[in-house]
Design brief:
2 domains, 60% helix, single chain, 4 strands, four-stranded antiparallel beta sheet, ATPase-coupled lipid transmembrane transporter activity, alpha+beta, ABC_transporter-like_ATP-bd, ABC transporter transmembrane region fold, ABC1_TM_dom
């Protein structure tokens, strides 16, 4: 039992690392736009956790019960093949219950996932806009909304558990019926046919208990697994990523080396600023890139950097990067920049393996290479 549990935990750990890392990589690298991180947190901490407990753990539970089922079945068939077959046929009937309840279980699981995402979003919005909401004196409304979403979440969690309990109850009732009928048939063969001893019937009866128990648990496990049908369709695809596809550092370098870029063509780019002014750019920049952006706040200096990085998309025009007359890519290029108001609490080592530190020399810029875009 110890070895089984340790092996199970080890396999689940490996699957979780693969699943969660691939999901995170996919969400982080698939777009340059900021995503709703409360949804991502909800998926990792709830949806993927639900897959672990209601799917992966149940697979191992079924495997252990199948082993017990096979051992007990072999013993029963050894005692009397025909009577044992009757016991087994009736014992299989409880497995039908999860199939009947499948749609209900799947529906309650989907509702739970939605309500959990709703509640996580409320928590995120409330604390992100803490000072703004306090200034409008809407404390009562916020508490009411939070309690409402929380009640909906817990109600959906209760219905999810209730559906699972109902499935187990129906399976237990059918199992009891399937336990009695074969025993009555066995008594008939003992009393009237005389081709089965009572001790053999008792042996089959007791061994059948080791069959019905596992079958009940298998039926319950299948019912629980059905609650993750839609979640598995959405997230288990990440387990199919090959090892080559999983090498994120090869597919997505952390920064785009400006050494490989010889020319940046900004072709009739237009973008509307937040203050209503229109930003128009049409120029070519060649290496070495020493560009000084000059202008008052709101004139579009940061916008230009974001347009080059691909964080923003121009309304018109495009930005093309070339290296030795070869097109590298359009718009979506990572060039390290300094944000005016950064938000990051992580300490990330950006040092190449071949050097002990990276020097960012922003002071000694040769004046002959400076170019003023705004004046």
């Amino acid at each position: 039992m110890y070895l089984f549990e340790v092996t199970q935990a080890s396999i689940v750990k490996t699957i979780n690392i693969k699943l969660k890392s691939e999901y995170f990589n996919s969400e982080y690298l698939s777009s340059y736009e900021v995503k709703d991180y409360s949804k991502i947190i909800s998926v990792i901490s709830n949806d993927l956790k639900l897959i672990e407990t209601n799917y992966l753990d149940q697979i191992f539970a079924i495997l252990s019960r199948v082993l017990l089922f096979v051992v007990s079945l072999c013993y029963m068939l050894y005692l009397n093949f025909f009577i044992s077959l009757i016991f087994v046929c009736f014992s299989i009937l409880p497995i039908i219950v999860p199939k009947i309840m499948q749609s209900k279980l799947k529906e309650t699981a989907n509702v739970f996932s939605e309500k959990n995402a709703d509640y996580s979003k409320v928590i995120k919005e409330v604390f992100n806009g803490f000072y703004t909401l306090r200034s409008y004196s809407v404390i009562k409304e916020i508490i009411t909304l939070s309690n409402k979403k929380l009640n909906n979440l817990e109600a959906s969690a209760f219905k999810l558990k209730q559906s699972s309990w109902t499935t187990q109850l129906i399976s237990a009732i059918i199992s009891g019926f399937c336990f009695i009928v074969p025993f009555v048939v066995g008594c008939y063969f003992v009393i009237y046919q005389h081709n089965l001893s009572f001790s053999a019937l008792i042996g089959i009866f007791l061994a059948n208990d080791a069959i019905i128990g596992p079958i009940q648990e298998i039926a319950a496990a299948l019912g629980i697994m059905n609650t993750t049908t839609d979640l598995r369709k959405k997230y288990l695809k990440y387990l199919k990523q090959s090892d080559e596809q999983s090498k994120v550092t090869d597919r997505y370098p952390s920064t785009f080396s400006t050494n490989t870029v010889e020319e940046i063509n900004i072709n009739k780019v237009q973008y509307k600023l937040g203050n209503g002014n229109n930003l128009t750019l049409n120029m070519s920049l060649r290496t070495p890139f020493r560009v000084l952006l000059i202008g008052p706040s709101g004139s579009g200096k940061t916008t230009i950097v974001n347009l080059i990085n691909g964080i923003l998309s121009p309304y018109k025009g495009n930005i093309i990067f070339k290296s030795k007359d070869k097109l590298l890519c359009k718009n979506k290029v990572n060039i390290s920049t300094i944000d005016q108001s950064p938000y990051c609490s992580l300490t990330i080592d950006v040092r190449p393996s071949s050097q002990k530190r990276r020097n960012l020399d922003m002071i000694r810029v040769p004046p002959t290479h400076q170019k003023g875009i705004f004046s």
